[in-house]
Amino acid sequence: MPAPGMGNLFEQEPFPQAAHRELGNTQMRKNLRHATHTIRDKRLRVVGELPDWEQLRDAGSAIKNSSMINLEERLLEFEKNFTARGGVVHWARDADEANKIVTDLIKETGSTEVVKVKSMATQEIGLNEHLETQGIEAFETDLAELIVQLGHDKPSHILVPAIHKNRTEVRDIFLKEMPVVDPDLTDEPARLAEAARKHLRKKFLAAKVAISGANFALADTGTLGVVESEGNGRMCLTLPETLITVMGIEKVLPKWEDIEVFMQLLPRSSTGERMNPYTSLWTGVSEDDGPQNVHIVLLDNGRSRVLADKFGRSALNCIRCSACMNVCPVYERTGGHAYGSTYPGPIGAILSPLMTGIEAEDNGSLPYASSLCGACYEACPVKINIPEILVHLRGDDVDANRGKRKIPTQMDLLMKGGSWALGKGKNIGLLEKALPLGRLAAGKSKKIKKLPGIAAGWTQSRDIPAPPNKSFRDWWSDEKESK
After folding, report:
1. First and final CA of the chain: distance in angstroms?
2. Contact partners, residue 27, CB within 8 Å, separation at least 6
């Protein structure tokens, strides 16, 4: 069962079932293919401009590894410097604690509305849903997040939450859900952006409280940073009187100079841009400028569990660029909703089970949501070896379930049989004598079209060629004798 208080980190149903359903959504698959291929092509062009791209990846990985090794020290250093500059630091063990802290801070201001910068951390803890139960309305200001919110939907991508919608679908959502909108609105991108801007302008100007995430926290100065592409973040970070940031503890970097590396890695890997249109940095409170009531909630919510896993801890190096998702053949066909968790795609397939524990069962199928092709590892700007961690988690899943079953499954029997067959040469030699049975099953087509039991999953989408007349071992033996 899911651990209490961890928010939106769990599958809603096993991945194979969810994926099978999503595969039937042809419009979604068409939208995803177009969007991911566009982004990956842009990324390849701008990455190719840098002769030291691999060195930058090495540097990013080294900086994050260093930060994780000394995470407690870095966090305490950040707290000291952020507090010295007028900010207030709160620590939250899980989603429930984080939601309570944020709610109490909002209620202290007397506000019943907040504006939000795009934030994976607040999605993870289910903040919007929690605030609604407390009579507080949260307005997403990122265009893609706004589309998802107005459409009563869930994000399906780390960077582009509404990637599964095309612009005609977006227009229909705006016409149906926006309180005031031009009834002749077209699906031209500029017109859609204009409609969103008019919808949000009054919210920006009236809001007393804003909630943000953070891309980075710099320990040596107590500085927080947000990068975004639309300017909505800048509005949220400067206009309201109160600013509350919710940030995973893994986002802290040791030194100010470290951000130089990530300002090259992140925009190229995420949107295929050479630099980010808006980069906002703030250090506590600046007198007579910007929010005067500044808070940060440092969120654990399973991150300490990941840090303790020597094989999986590098998953905390993730900078949420989504490059792995844009090259993943599984994500491209199933979309983000099939993963259930806030974090979809290859990084979600390892991060969610690591944070909740594979034994929680609800995320037990996520490590199998991969072909292990390795494209995610090649694309990752901080060199997280996602395929290796997936294999590690699959092993953990097998170990966790080994003692729960009284009767062996088909997979257990197949593995036992494989172990016996490959354990000794004479054993596999005995099996090779059954090759004529395989040819008989193939018949005139010379293809085996259906296998029994669990093996039927293989032949649902492919045929198996009929076995050869002679095994390699027999051929080799005959060749040696003939000489």
Report:
1. 64
2. 166
For 134, what's the count of Cα atoms within 13 Å in the CB-facing half-sphere? 22
Domains of the chain: 15-304 (3.40.50.10420), 425-482 (no CATH)
Say which residues have a Cβ less than 8 Å from residue 172's Cβ, sequence separation at least 6: none
E strand map for 266-377: 278-282, 293-299
Token couple for 131: 């605030």
Residue 373 CB: number of other CB atoms within 10 A?
Answer: 14
Distances (CA, A) of 184 to 37, 174, 180, 187: 31, 11, 12, 10
Phi/psi region, residue 65 (left: phi>0; alpha: psi -120 to 50; beta: rest), is alpha
Q: In what order do the strands lie in the sheet with 223-228?
A: 252-253, 216-218, 223-228, 278-282
Element (H, E) at 267: helix 259-270
3-state secondary structure of 151: coil
Q: Which helix (H) or strand (E) holds 88?
A: strand 88-92
Per-position pLDDT tens, the chain of length 483: 445 678 898 888 899 999 999 999 999 999 999 999 999 999 999 999 999 999 999 999 999 999 999 999 999 999 999 999 999 999 999 999 999 999 999 999 999 999 999 999 999 999 999 999 999 999 999 999 999 999 999 999 999 999 999 999 999 999 999 999 999 999 999 999 999 999 999 999 999 999 999 999 999 999 999 999 999 999 999 999 999 999 999 999 999 999 999 999 999 999 999 998 999 999 999 988 999 999 999 999 999 999 999 999 999 999 999 999 999 999 999 999 999 999 999 999 999 999 998 876 568 899 999 999 999 999 999 999 999 999 999 998 888 877 666 677 787 788 888 899 889 888 888 888 888 887 887 788 888 888 888 888 878 878 888 888 888 888 888 888 776
For residue 322, the Cα-to-chain-centroid distance in whole angstroms is 7
Which H, E and C letters describe 414-468, residue by residue? HHHHHHHHHHCHHHHHHHHCCHHHHHHHHHHHCEECCCCHHHHHHHCCCCEECCC
Which pTM does this prediction carry?
A: 0.88
- The DSSP symbol for 136 reads -
Residue 268 CA: distances (Å) to CA of 263, 319, 348, 376, 446: 9, 12, 21, 15, 49
Task: Please say whether the dihedral angle defined by the alpha carbons of residues 227, 157, 251 and 370, taken in this order, is positive or negative.
Answer: negative
CA pair distance 314, 351, nearest whole angstrom: 10
